[in-house]
Fold this sequence. Notes:
A hairpin with a 2-residue loop joins strand 3 (105-117) and strand 4. The chain has 10 helices and 13 strands. The strands form 2 sheets. Strands 1, 2, 3, 4, 5, 6 and 7 form a 7-stranded antiparallel sheet that branches. A 6-stranded antiparallel sheet has the order 8-9-10-11-12-13, sandwiched between helices. The chain starts with a helix and ends with a strand. The chain has 2 domains: 25-166, Nuclear Transport Factor 2, Chain: A, CATH 3.10.450; 183-306. The longest helix is centred in the first third of the chain and has 22 residues, at 2-23. By secondary structure, it is of the alpha+beta class. Helix 4 (51-61) packs across helix 5. It has helices at 2-23, 29-38, 44-47, 51-61, 63-72, 75-81, 171-186, 189-209, 240-243, 297-303; strands spanning 85-88, 94-100, 105-117, 120-131, 134-136, 140-151, 154-166, 246-247, 250-255, 266-271, 280-284, 290-292, 305-306. The chain is elongated and about 100 Å long.
Amino acid sequence: MKRMGTVWALVFACILALHGQERRRPQNARQALIEMFFSKTPGTLEKHLPDAMRAALRKAGGGDSFTMLQGFSALSGQLTASGQQLQTFDVGPTLMTAEDARTHSKLEITVERDDLQSDEDEIEVSFHLYKDGQKQNSFLTPKLTFVMKQEAEVWKLNELLLTMRISLADPKFLDEIAKSMRQGQAANQPPAVAAIRNINTAEVTYAATYPARGYTCSLSDLDGFGAGGANEQQAMLIDSGLASGKKAGYVFSLTGCAGAPAKQYRISAVPVDPSAGLRAYCSDESAVIRYSSDGKAASCLGSGMPLQ
């Protein structure tokens, strides 16, 4: 019986030894990458950073820097706390999935390339979003490449590369470009309105200063720069940019100055690009500023709506 007990003890000892060896099997680069960002053990991200970077972080911010970094290595806890189901995969085409049953959405990180060469491994991943089981297409396709290098049997993140593919023919991309252009053009509308107010003020001052002429239909008469002092042809009431007739993406015109002295005038501002979809603005001696949505001076002067 003693011999049998000794034999069984040896068997169990061998099993435990083998199990210990199995647990101490070295990580591969992919496992190290997963551990960096999804481990619940403190310090895992720091463990997989290059020694030079760790030293620089200690010098720059001490413990605070590593406290901040630890937040990145606790992504699994953050995702779980927000109600998402997280799964990581050591092998296969999928590196990680995070699924939210409440919104029926899923984020999937896919391994596009895993090139192991000696003590260096380049792992390229892409990101895919699903909603109600359907893949959501985007004109932007980001990819990250993690260059892992083995140092003292530990895989460390040596380089990080970000690439972005943009589909220039994608309808969503074209819509975004058009939207951005409209927003930029819309930002020019308030300066155009301010310019008309300046011209209205200049006309009142001009008519009061030169009563024999009254209002003027020449923007150059209101110009603010030139040789000599102010006069009827150079009243120094507006800047030369506005006096040129073009400013802030608009073309300005003065008309309707009949009679001597002129007791009326009409000012209009239309978009430089008529197809831009911007408003036209106009005013007259009443100083009421109006607009028309079709961008045409005639519409604004004839039936424009007062600007609120």
